[in-house]
Design brief:
GO terms for molecular function: zinc ion binding. The chain is mainly alpha-helical. Helices cover 48% and strands 4% of the residues.
Length: 543
């Protein structure tokens, strides 16, 4: 039998070999070389070089684990250990190099160093860490031997070693992360799924009532991260009282996202039940339009057009000034659903549009309703209190449960966003003789590409690389399309086609601009996307 060194030299795979075992050979060789350099270096004499080698070791181990992961997907795809437990982890932990972090943690535990875990928990995890690292060494050994003999096959010993390593890695990952953070229980996962359903129903109701528009959803308007939870609190307390925000059960049976606010939600529900249809409509519109201050506040005038295109202020604005030390004779009559579903025959102002019936709820008795209203000097004062309380609960979710709320909203957007291809004909043109014909497409007066009907097509034919001059941020305080003012939440975005500044809702598309030297998709406004770009380079923004 040939010596190991000679056999290794004779059967060494080529770097150009695309097979996974050949890639593993060089990834494993890289890790071994870096480890040897670290062992031969005196860290006290050359600490800078030591840090450089540690970084190289981190990168080479990450690459090695990635190759092993691909080998397992190819070799034992049906024997992989279940990773369903990942849904229990906070979203910020689900990073691409989580596996490398687990390997580093196992090495630290085996060396007696307890990073981010208590000593008692570290002692319990140490046997798992030892088994994992021993299994990894076995995998490296069998894969290295196989790469030097038959790099295209996986015999049974290789498969068995991979199955064992996959199982031990999953067990250690779950145990270690569980010792660091509070992972979600199956019950909590189910409750948060119910919250996702509530949020989706809330968005559908808001779309029907005109509080939100589909363009805001498809454009991932940042304000929606505050608006949707606020409206969902009203929906969960009034429209779906037996859902995830049901107050008929104890706080321990609610999701951990809302359980800390159990007592406050009870007070909010009691106040919501005494509102008339117009008052509820006004409150919900205020929650949609507000960004940093209460629109019902005297210091802040209502900005309906900026926050909700096409939605005018509700008729009963004068209602806010009318004192209600005694309740009006005809308010909530026992049926409180979507704004149009509440019967309020005593009000003279126009009724909000109906959006479908809601469930029947018991309105507070007249004496109780009168008592609740008597605590406030006017309807405006009561609505302001509700606004502050609802906004406070919803905004606290952004701080205390940022990971959970981000995961919930991410799923909601996937469900409620338009599924169709927005690149369908939007009054754009047809191609004739390989050139884009703008035809009767709408033109914008201040668009630099609309000054000349042939300017955009001429740039494409000539392959020009002169990019448009960008409008300076300091000279633009509102969106060039919808005229919505820019704020901390509504950010500026430059269209790479015309150079003007838009909000996210008015620039939700991406497209390649080869005539400007942009072969990869970049952000463009809706106008340029629909008028000045051919269908070929279009691509919807996926965020």
């Amino acid at each position: 039998m040939l010596p190991a060194a000679l056999r290794r030299w004779l059967h060494r795979p080529k770097r150009s070999d695309p097979r996974l075992l050949s890639q593993f050979f060089f990834a494993d060789e890289r890790v071994t070389r870096v480890v040897a350099e670290i062992n031969g270096l005196d860290a006290e004499l050359d600490p800078q070089q030591y840090l450089v080698l540690l970084n190289q070791l981190h990168l080479s181990q990450a690459h090695l684990l990635a190759v092993i992961e691909r080998i397992m997907e190819e070799c034992i795809p049906t024997q992989r250990h279940s990773r369903d437990y990942l849904v229990k982890f906070p979203e910020e932990l689900l990073v691409d190099n989580l596996g490398n972090h687990m390997l580093f943690a196992a090495e630290c535990l085996l060396a007696g160093t307890f990073i981010e875990v208590e000593e008692a928990e570290g002692a319990q995890l140490r046997p798992r860490a030892r088994n994992l690292l021993c299994s990894l060494e076995l995998v490296r050994t069998v894969l290295r031997e196989q790469s030097l003999s038959q790099p295209g096959t996986y015999p049974e010993p290789v498969r068995a070693a991979l199955v064992q390593f996959d199982r031990l890695f999953a067990e250690f990952e779950l145990s270690y992360v569980s010792s660091l953070v509070a992972v979600k229980s199956p019950e909590e996962i189910y409750r948060q799924q119910e919250i996702i359903v509530l949020f989706c129903e809330t968005v559908e109701r808001a779309l029907r009532s005109g509080y939100l528009t589909q363009e805001m959803i498809d454009g991932y308007e940042p304000l929606l991260m505050f608006t949707i939870p606020r409206l969902a609190i009203i929906s969960g307390l009034l429209i779906y009282p037996e859902g995830p925000l049901s107050l008929e059960r104890g706080p321990e049976q609610m999701s951990r996202v809302f359980s800390p606010f159990y007592n406050l939600l009870k007070k909010i529900r009691d106040l919501l039940r005494v509102l008339s249809a117009e008052e509820l409509c006004l409150l919900e519109r205020s929650l949609c339009a507000a960004e940093s201050e209460d629109p019902c506040s005297p210091a802040t005038p209502p900005t309906w057009g900026a926050a909700m295109p096409g939605a005018g202020p509700p008729a009963p604005w004068g209602l806010l000034e009318a004192p209600h030390t005694t309740p009006p004779p005809h308010t909530c009559t026992g049926r409180l659903g979507p704004p149009g579903a509440v019967e309020s025959p005593g009000m003279d102002s126009p009724q909000p549009p109906r959006s479908g019936p809601g469930p029947r709820l018991e309105a507070p008795p007249g004496a109780r309703r009168s008592e609740l209203r008597s605590h406030y000097s006017s309807t405006k004062d009561m609505l302001h209190t509700l606004f502050v309380c609802i906004s406070g609960v919803a905004d606290q979710l952004q701080t205390n449960f940022a990971s959970d709320l981000r995961s919930i909203l991410k799923t909601v957007f996937k469900i409620v966003a338009s599924q169709g291809d927005p690149s369908e004909d939007l009054g754009t043109s047809t191609e004739e003789d390989g050139e884009l014909q703008v035809g009767d497409a709408p033109r914008v007066a201040d668009c630099p590409l609309c000054h000349s009907p042939t300017e955009g097509a001429g740039l494409r034919r000539a392959g020009a690389h002169g990019r448009p001059e960008w409008v300076p941020d300091s000279t633009c305080s509102q969106c060039c399309a919808c005229r919505a003012p820019f704020t901390l939440l509504r950010r500026r975005h430059h269209c790479r086609s015309c150079g003007k500044i838009f909000c996210a809702r008015c620039s939700p598309h991406t497209a390649a601009l080869p005539h400007y030297g942009q072969p990869k998709p970049v952000r463009v406004c809706t106008h340029c996307y629909a008028v000045h770009l051919s269908p070929a380079p279009r691509r919807s923004r996926s965020r």
